[in-house]
Amino acid sequence: MLIKIKSEREIELLRTAGHIVYLTHQYLKPFLKEGITTKEIDDKAGEFIKSCGATPSCKGYHGYPANICISINDEVVHGIAGKRKLKNGDIITLDICACYKGYHGDSAWSYPVGEVSDEAKYILKHTEQALYEGLKFAKAGNHIGDISNAVEEYANKYHLGVVKELCGHGVGNELHEEPDVPNYGIKGTGPLLKEGMTIAVEPMLTIGSPDVYMLDDDWTIKTDDGSLSAHFEHTVVIRNDGCEILTGE
Ligand code: MF3
Ligand code: CO
Question: Which residues contact ligand 1 via a Cβ below 6 A?
Answer without folding.
Answer: 58, 61-62, 64, 69, 78, 95, 97, 106
